[in-house]
Design brief:
The chain is mainly alpha-helical. Helix content is 72%, strand content 0%. The protein has seven helices and no strands.
Length: 163
């Protein structure tokens, strides 16, 4: 496969998966600037590792795993990074049509951001309607562990929303 074909395939993949990438980044970002940085970092890491994707797992599973690992690593390093000039582009696009739904989503994400890293990853995958097996594959935990953790996380979120 020549370079142009690889680039086209990659760009098609980014277009097809950008909402997923955005959602993963949104869970780990504290503001719009960090969201944009995370999104760029994920796309860069996907590009670097794209030629090595072997197809051992579903493509979306691989994208989730790269995105989550990138976000976690990026946040660990971010405390030692110098301040940068913020980008003004809004990569969220038109994900939510009305303000009522947007407000509910903001509240949900505010609560989710109070969870631990693994909890955030699990609830995000659950919201994406991934199967328990896919969640287990992405996160490297057992299917039974996924079920137990999800049940606890849902209870925790319900308790947090009632507070």
């Amino acid at each position: 496969m020549d370079k142009k074909q690889i680039e086209k395939e990659f760009l098609d993949m980014i277009e097809a998966q950008k909402r997923v990438i955005y959602k993963v980044c949104y869970i780990y970002a504290k503001d719009q600037e960090e969201l944009n940085d995370l999104f760029q970092e994920v796309v860069l890491n996907l590009w670097k590792s794209f030629p090595r994707y072997r197809g051992d797992s579903k493509f979306s599973t691989w994208v989730y795993r790269v995105a989550m690992n990138t976000c976690i690593t990026f946040l660990r390093r971010s405390s030692s990074r110098p301040q940068t000039v913020p980008m003004t582009a809004n990569i969220a696009g038109q994900m939510v049509a009305d303000e009522g739904t947007a407000a509910q989503l903001r509240e949900l994400y505010r609560l989710i951001n109070q969870l631990g890293k693994l909890e955030r990853a699990l609830i995000l995958l659950w919201l994406e309607e991934r199967s328990y097996q896919e969640m287990a594959d992405i996160l490297g935990i057992s299917k039974a562990n996924v079920a137990v953790k999800l049940n606890r996380i849902k209870g925790k979120l319900k308790q947090m929303s009632n507070s």
